[in-house]
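Researcher: Quick test of sequence recovery. Tokens follow.
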């Protein structure tokens, strides 16, 4: 387990460094105003994903070892498509995201949320290695796509960043789907109690997530309203850099959750948690 934590921390460190490179080349190519626009798009995706996670979030890590995988996947897919569409239209109508990117917001939210579902399933199966490979791959593909479009194709536009998101999430979604397909047992019998249980546990988990997101990101909208998008761009860069300090704690929590979710022994789960607290 310690090895999984170390490899996860190393993966997150690599991702943080790659993200810094992404921020650097994006800011260099698009300027502060462009970064402000990108931060609003990313925030819109995060809001959509927050509500999509009621059925497609970390609740899956707990339920995958206990429930038929297909009965978790299909409701999550349908819910994500619905939430991403409705959420993006609402955000656009309230001018909380650039109106010209509402359609892109829908599709990228779907791609990222579907990928997140696959990632949570891999954690539920304790395939931490595959989880880390996919997470790092997404960041690498995003970086190389941006570098190609900015420096070789001379496409210095926010559209280039959006296009790179399509490429990176589309690729890792397909690969991660290949990892989990062999674990699906195809069946046409459905148990509605599983859907109710998923909503119940997902609601508990996401309640804290809602408060956390708006605590960290509400300032984005305030800055854009009372200052300008260029100021928002500079602020968002600082936020991304400061969040890198969570690498170790998030790595421990992720591996620990995956292990506990696959355990039916409450004493073991308690002792494991106590050991990490100490």
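Model:
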């Amino acid at each position: 387990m310690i090895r999984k934590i170390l490899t996860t921390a190393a993966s997150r460190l690599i991702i943080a460094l790659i993200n810094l490179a992404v921020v650097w080349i994006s800011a260099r190519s698009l300027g502060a105003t462009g970064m402000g626009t990108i931060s609003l798009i990313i925030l819109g995706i995060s809001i959509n994903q927050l509500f999509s996670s009621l059925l497609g979030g970390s609740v899956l890590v707990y339920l995958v070892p206990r429930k038929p995988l297909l009965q978790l996947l299909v409701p999550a897919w349908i819910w994500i498509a619905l939430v991403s569409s409705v959420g993006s239209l609402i955000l656009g109508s309230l001018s909380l995201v650039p109106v010209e990117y509402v359609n892109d917001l829908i599709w990228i939210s779907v791609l990222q949320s579907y990928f997140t579902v696959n990632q949570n399933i891999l954690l539920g199966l304790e395939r931490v290695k595959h989880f880390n490979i996919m997470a790092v791959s997404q960041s690498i593909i995003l970086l190389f796509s941006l570098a190609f479009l900015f420096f070789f194709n001379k496409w210095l536009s926010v559209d280039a960043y959006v296009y790179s998101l399509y490429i990176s999430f589309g690729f890792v979604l397909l690969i991660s789907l290949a990892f989990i397909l062999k674990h699906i047992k195809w069946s046409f019998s459905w148990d509605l109690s599983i859907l109710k249980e998923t909503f119940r546990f997902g609601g508990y988990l996401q309640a804290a997530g809602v408060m956390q997101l708006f605590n960290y990101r509400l300032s984005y909208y305030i800055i854009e309203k009372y200052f300008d998008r260029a100021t928002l761009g500079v602020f968002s860069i600082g936020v991304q850099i400061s969040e890198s300090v969570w690498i170790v704690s998030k790595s421990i929590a992720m591996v620990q959750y995956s292990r506990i979710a696959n355990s039916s022994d409450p004493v073991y789960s308690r002792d494991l948690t106590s050991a990490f607290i100490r």
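The CA atoms of residues 70 and 269 lie 27 Å apart.
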